[in-house]
Write a structure and sequence with these properties.
2 domains; single chain; alpha+beta; 283 residues; Helicase, Ruva Protein, domain 3
């Protein structure tokens, strides 16, 4: 086989560039198998060097089956790469594997992809080929018995890939168009309003502590008495809780009503919002 033929075969096998394949073949004295191993090692080295860089672009992928829905974020350095076909193909397959592994990263990274390599190995190869830092970010699988999951994708890149995605789980024994419409609208509301928790009592204590610090800093030089400052602080914190808990948020489609009021107006007696998850790239 000619040198050009070997380079072509090596490129097809590894996805590496012409220059890297040529150098690997020279180093391996024309042995394709050894050249593949050299490229694999160099790919790991290249990938490790890129991991210190920022990766705030990317996509969010959603995959579902009859029992569950999973959402996963994959980051890269530029929006250009987020639209690259190799990157998109990797993320789409990764999304399905993530749904199968219930968003367990330890299982996911060892899962085999269609190329015969593990997710970890495929990620290293993709980084070496594309030349950017690529990382697997947040992920979540929602699976509740007796519930139906609804999704919303905003700024779609391709198919089930977008820049922002939401999954929400509704529990009820009913199945009708009214429920489906509410599920769709609730997903859109969560995308727009970004609630921190389902109810105010579920908001992370660390977030509330930080908000209390910010309020205290804001009020410390107002010249008001301690009692007045305390009352204002309580009022501001309660408003923060109300605006950041899903049930007490103003409904995006009808801001004069709260989400909990809309839920009651659906007139489905056993309807419960079980849980939700929202990911926006780089947020």
């Amino acid at each position: 086989m000619s040198d050009l033929g070997k380079i072509k075969k090596l490129r097809q096998s590894t996805g590496a560039g012409f220059k890297d394949c040529n150098e690997a073949l020279k180093e391996s004295l024309g042995d394709i198998d050894k050249a593949i191993e050299i490229l694999r090692v160099k790919g790991i080295s290249k990938a490790s060097k890129k991991m210190s860089r920022e990766a705030n672009e990317g996509v969010v992928a959603v995959s579902s089956d009859e029992e569950k829905t999973s959402i996963i974020e994959v980051n890269c350095e530029t929006d250009f790469v987020a639209k690259n076909e190799d990157f998109i193909s990797f993320v789409k397959e990764l999304s399905n594997l993530n749904n199968n592994s219930l968003s367990d990263f330890a299982i996911l990274k060892k899962a085999k992809m269609t190329n015969g390599k593990t997710v970890d190995e495929s990620l290293v190869a993709l980084i070496a080929k594309i030349g950017e830092k690529i990382t697997i970010g947040r992920s979540k699988t929602i699976q509740n018995l007796g519930s139906k999951n609804y999704t919303y994708l905003h700024t779609i890149v391709k198919d089930n890939l977008s820049k922002l995605a939401v999954v929400v789980s509704l529990e009820t024994n009913e199945t009708n168009e009214k429920l489906d419409l509410f599920g769709k609208q609730l997903s859109m509301h969560i995308a727009a309003s970004n609630p921190l928790a389902l109810k105010s009592e579920n908001i992370d204590r660390a977030i509330l502590d930080k908000e209390e610090e910010l309020i205290a800093e804001e009020l410390k030089n107002t010249g008001k008495s301690e009692d007045i400052v305390k009352k204002i602080s309580i009022g501001k914190l309660n408003k923060f809780k109300e605006e950041n808990a899903l049930m007490s948020q103003a409904w995006v489609m009808e801001p004069k009503k709260k989400v909990q009021e809309i839920l009651k107006s659906i007139n489905i007696s056993d309807l419960i919002i079980k849980e939700f998850y929202r990911i926006k790239v780089g947020e």
